[in-house]
Amino acid sequence: MTRFLSESLQAPEPFFRGALQKLEAASGHPNADIRVSTEVMQATQTKLRQLGLDPKDTTAEELYHALQERIKADDARLTKKLRTLAATHVSAEGQVVDGMVHALSALPESRRAFALKSSSLKSLIKQQPPKKAMKQLGYRSLSSFLKHESPASILAAARLVENSAWQKRFIDQYKKLKPSDFEDRKITILQPDSKKWRELAASVVDEKRHNLIGLRELGALLFLPLPHDAPAGTVTASLSLALHELNEIRASGTYLKMCQVRPDFGKLVQTVAADQPRLNAQLLDTSVPWSLLHRYYARLKQVGAELSEPHLQLEDIAWHPIEKTLSQIEPSLDFWHDSAHLGLVQGRRPVSLNIVDAALNSCNHLPFERRLLDYFQHSLWHEVLLRYLQPEAVEQTVLSELQPQLAEEAVLA
After folding, report:
1. Helix or strand or coil: residue 55?
2. Dihedral over Cα of 395, 376, 348, 63: its sign
3. CB 173 within 8 Å of CB 273
């Protein structure tokens, strides 16, 4: 069973086998790798049957092409649903991105995050004006720029057009931020659509091959317009990546909320903005992304007493599977439920059943030989790690890494 995981993850041996043995020993030998492998193989066979394929004689290439046909059909249905939502609730033009923004805003699940205040961001922008972004969007003065664009939109534009030196200078300002510069509020979903923004979007989407900008420290997600002739799979890929980013925004907000008492709070904000925070997990003998522990608590559906009030509430811990949220918007996408970590192994390179991989393969016209599987491998590895985590060890890790003084209080108690 370790071989299945090794081949699925394309992990180097014998290092991977040794790492699993350490996890088994540290957590009391629960055989988690065997259970995960068995579950994945059985669930993958079920998905093949749902596609009308015989698990006994279906090749990896046959599965890949079947998934491509499925994602194209699902993408067409999702696009139609989003255009209908846009025409009904936004404007008669029925633009698909309008439908995405409306659909995300209407979802019943938690959409709040601990994020930088607009007033604090505006102060940072005044200290470090994004002159290239201002010129790109047709503004002659910073005061006019700030008057007609939201601070989050301004920072998004700056992330797109300012050079690395400006980016570094701006992020350096985060070191001075304090918890009082943040607030618990609804996640902001933006869709600037002025003529200048559309011109900027046309070049960015064509060059970077995506239309999303996630600003995790701001609790904001910005959509750029999609081209009318976008290839099949583009809408599903865009909406899936948006849902992924919303999960990351919530996780980042929770991390910062937990870290309010840290003297190096500003540096932690820099970490959130640049990448994602990682914690040293003694049980796993390595550092893990905070988003994994955030997902762990969401699955556990409880938070230990030392981490709860006034530091964290259960409602702060929300992690919503992408494929399930997609099917809330368009029910026909329920085929993809619980498939994020599923894949078929034949040879050394598996075929991913992760909807994000499938959509990206489709919209980028990737042949079987060049297929993507990054999101599948990421999800499978995290699924393995989640099985080895234990509540007491996780809580101690969070206490010691995020709030050292709380860990000391817990030991004294």
Report:
1. coil
2. positive
3. no
The two three-digit tokens of residue 383, written as one number: 């699924």
Q: Which of 35, 56, 37 is nearest to 45 (CA)?
A: 56
- CA pair distance 15, 401, nearest whole angstrom: 27
Give the three-class secondary structure for 117: coil
Distance CA 281, CA 269 (A): 21
Residue 396 is predicted with a pLDDT of 75
**Successive 10-residue mean pLDDT values, the chain, 413 residues:** 86 84 80 93 97 96 98 97 95 91 83 94 97 95 96 96 96 97 94 90 77 95 89 95 94 90 93 86 71 84 61 73 95 96 91 98 96 96 88 74 50 35
Is the four-CA dihedral 359, 362, 366, 367 of positive or negative sign? positive
Tokens of 392: 């007491």
Residues 144 and 104: their CA atoms lie apart, in Å, by 30
Distances (CA, A) of 383 to 36, 318, 340: 8, 17, 10
Q: Quote the pLDDT of residue 264.
A: 93
Of 73, 67, 75, 74, the closest CA to residue 51 belongs to 67
The structure tokens 């043995």 sit at 21
Examine residue 12 and say whether the peptide bond preceding it is cis (omega within 30 degrees of 0): no
* The token pair that represents 93 in the structure block: 């033009």
For residue 125, which amino acid is it? Answer: I
At 151, list the tokens.
Answer: 């601070």
The answer to whether 216 and 273 have CB atoms below 8 angstroms apart is yes
What pLDDT, on a 0 to 100 scale, did the predictor assign at position 313?
A: 67
Report residue 205 CA to chain centroid gap: 19
Nearest to 339 by CA among 326, 350, 327, 352: 352
pTM here is 0.91
Task: Tell me the residue type at 331.
Answer: P
Cα-to-chain-centroid distance, residue 235: 16
- Is residue 121 within 8 A of residue 151, CB to CB? The reply is yes
Run of H or E including 317 = none
Coil, strand or helix: which one is 332?
helix
pLDDT at residue 134, rounded to an integer: 96
Tens digit of each residue's pLDDT (9 = 90 or more) over 119-166: 999 999 999 999 999 999 999 999 999 999 999 999 999 999 999 999
